[in-house]
Write a structure and sequence with these properties.
696 residues, alpha+beta, 8-stranded antiparallel beta sheet, 7-stranded mixed beta sheet, elongated
């Protein structure tokens, strides 16, 4: 691929609601610029950026994918980002690598939840944004209606720089409003031929050009003075102001077309060149200078030594690990010495590549602002910095959301546990919004992610990439047992079987721990040597082993105080083992006599929702045996604080999405254990019994 300077690069993230045609837009641009020789379709599983087997099966994008191409000596890196909400981590990774986001909006559907989320996310990370109104060839589509929605929702900054010619099936061209040039689409060649602006659209185009001039004039005092003085702004002045206004977030240009019919790609590319900011306009990257420990903001620059940020990792079962990175400063060649400052370890660069979907294009140099990839880095993970050893910096990390749903992974074939663990470990490297752990209590492998679809896809990838078949099920709830009353019991172990016998005798008071702490509190009140000092640790050890399994359903026992106050011993037959057994007998008897109770984990949930869903959320919390603690406004929404049993929250990510049309978010953390209502106890005991029988 030809060498480019930083000013000849455009890094554009394609973002928006699922199903608006983001992948089709990337495909249309690749096809139009002759980077691919066949126009793929999402429905056929033949697009360049949706190359994963799961993406082809589901017909949705599941990971951020890069699609580089060139047009008029400009190199474009289009980053196609999933619109499905479970894959928000891919959006976070992809948007870190680009200089401007193009929010794709369906002309049929208008503004959707994903449009709002994309706009809000761009605001949050201060990323310039533009709009592409897609699918104008479909029935019941109206550019003016969708543009009015965008203007009303997102404010005066939304400015049209293109206007469609024809509606629905008669959509056949695009007008560049600034230059007043009309282009008509040729369905055979997909080229767009220049033509006069249709007479019925002249007034409309003039009106929209006035809107553009008014918007750009407000970004610059000299232009504003010129505008109010009645002087005409030149095309060059308008375009320069558009670039600056877009880069600062003051202007969001609106383009249009039909990705599936490849209509409007010429005009889109020309306006990307003329109106979209280059990497030179990118916000300086926050970094810590290793040598001084000070924070600096480092602008993208070709002049400094090499540094780059790894924004995504792909776990390829054949090639190994592929690390996608963006060069922030300098340039990198295969022989460039590279150091990972997060891990404090050197890395070896073997081969540098540009990725176009899954296709690898070899290169011998990647410059500042560009996006490239390297295979088989030994230590480097997503979000880490690689740099020249003479220029040690650590760029700001990613802020990924906490997982909201957890499932247990069960192998379908015996003996696959090791393969599952190693496969999941590889997938964790690829997807930082996903975590795995082994529950020491239940021995289950638990995976946590952003929703049920996210976890189902991970399970499918285990099969397709690592040949391990698994099923997902709800993890076992870590219930606990305790007592509500006091009991005073004797545990006596006496056994004679020829030679030395076994003898241990203890008297213990069991009661709820007065300070409410979970840990067993063992109190030694033996006087007069009734139990010899050397056997008392054995009694405590016997009790600590016994509390691992309660008498109701076999769950660990908490909030317990055990006071050893008396007992007896035999000078020959007593032993540590005998006193451990005696303590266990006392424990079982004491639990039975002290009103045993089953406890469940209670979670504190912070649920952020728009006001209109408040009633539904409060009602649902009550249905889930929860209680609302309070509410407070957060960024124009409401945050509901509630406490709810964990057993009712295992699928809450899906429930909340359904209730709020995916406009709600939540986080939860364990707060304490509370007694299970009597109506639920028997059900839990039976389920536990069935589970244990199935394991035997």
């Amino acid at each position: 691929m030809k060498e480019y300077r930083i000013k000849n690069l455009r890094n554009v993230g394609i973002i928006g609601h699922s199903g608006t045609g983001k992948t089709s837009l990337a495909e249309a641009l690749l096809y139009y610029t002759k980077s691919i020789d066949r126009l793929g379709r999402v429905e056929d599983g033949t697009t360049t950026t949706d190359f994963d087997s799961e993406e082809k099966k589901k017909q949705i994008s599941l990971q951020a994918s890069v699609a580089p191409f060139t047009y008029q000596d400009i190199k474009f890196n289009m980053v196609d980002v999933p619109g499905f909400f479970d894959f928000v981590g891919e959006q976070i990774q992809g948007m870190r690598a680009v200089d401007v986001a193009t929010i794709v909006v369906s002309a049929a559907s208008g503004i959707e939840v994903g449009t709002d989320k994309a706009w809000d996310y761009c605001n949050k990370i201060k990323l310039p944004r533009t709009f592409f109104i897609n699918k104008l060839d479909r029935d019941h589509t109206d550019f003016d209606k969708v543009f009015a929605q965008l203007k009303e929702k997102y404010g005066m900054s939304v400015v049209p720089i293109q206007y469609p010619i024809g509606k629905e099936e008669n959509f056949h061209g695009v007008i560049n409003i600034i230059s007043n040039r009309a282009r008509i689409h040729d369905p055979k060649t997909f080229e767009m031929k220049e033509a006069p602006v249709p007479e019925d659209l002249v007034d409309k185009v003039n009106e929209l050009r006035e809107m553009i001039i008014e918007s750009v004039a407000q970004t610059d005092e000299a232009l504003l003075e010129k505008y109010f003085g009645g002087e005409e702004l030149t095309h060059e002045e308008i375009y320069n102001a558009l670039i600056k206004g877009c880069a600062s977030g003051d202007i969001a240009p609106v383009t249009c077309g039909s990705a599936s019919k490849v209509i409007g790609m010429t005009t889109l590319l020309e306006d990307m060149i003329e109106c979209f900011p280059t990497p030179e306009y990118a916000i300086p990257q926050k970094a810590v200078v290793v040598e001084t420990g000070e924070t600096e903001f480092i602008p993208l620059s070709e002049d400094k030594p090499f540094s780059g940020l790894v924004f995504k990792t792909i776990a390829d079962p054949f090639v190994g690990k592929i690390s996608l990175f963006r060069v922030i400063t300098g340039h990198i060649r295969p022989d460039t010495p590279v150091f990972n400052t997060n891990q404090d370890k050197p890395e070896k660069i073997n081969t540098l590549i540009f990725l176009r979907g899954k296709n690898q294009i070899l290169t011998d140099k990647i410059i500042a602002g560009d996006i490239g990839a390297v295979t088989k880095l030994q230590f480097t993970k997503t979000g880490e910095t690689i740099c020249d050893p003479k220029f040690k910096v650590i760029y700001d990390k990613f802020n990924f959301p906490q997982p909201t749903m957890t499932m247990a992974v069960m192998p379908k074939a015996k003996g696959d546990e090791d393969k599952i663990s190693s496969g999941l470990q590889r997938l964790v490297e690829e997807d930082p919004t996903f975590t795995m752990e082994r529950d020491p209590e239940t021995a289950e492998i638990l995976i946590s992610g952003q929703g049920d679809t996210h976890l189902e896809i991970l399970a499918s990838r285990l099969k397709s990439k690592f040949s391990v078949d698994v099923e997902l099920r709800k993890p076992r709830i870590p219930y606990r047992e305790t007592i509500k009353k006091k009991s005073d019991v004797q545990g006596k172990h006496k056994k004679q079987s020829g030679g030395h016998g076994q003898y241990g005798d203890v008297k213990i008071i069991f009661e709820p721990r007065p300070d409410g702490e979970d840990e067993l509190l063992f109190v030694d009140k033996v006087v007069g040597g009734a139990v010899p000092r050397n056997y008392i640790p054995a009694v405590e050890k016997g009790l600590r082993e016994s509390i691992q399994e309660g008498i109701l359903a076999g769950y660990p026992v908490i909030k317990l105080q055990a006071t050893l106050y008396d007992g007896s011993f035999h000078p020959v037959d007593s032993s540590e083992m005998a006193f451990k057994v005696a303590a266990n007998l006392a424990f079982k008897k004491g639990m039975e006599m002290a009103s045993p109770a089953l406890l469940e984990p209670i979670m504190k949930a912070s649920i952020i929702i728009p006001d209109e869903y408040m009633g539904d959320i409060m009602g649902d919390i009550n249905k889930k045996r929860g209680r609302v603690l309070g509410m407070e406004p957060v960024d124009g929404k409401q945050m509901v604080l509630a406490e709810v049993p964990l057993s009712e929250m295992q699928t809450y990510a899906t429930d909340l999405r359904s209730m709020t049309q995916a406009r709600g978010d939540f986080q939860m953390e364990f707060t304490r254990y509370e007694e299970v209502p009597p109506s639920e106890v028997q059900k839990i005991v039976e389920e536990t019994k069935k589970f244990k029988e199935s394991k035997e």
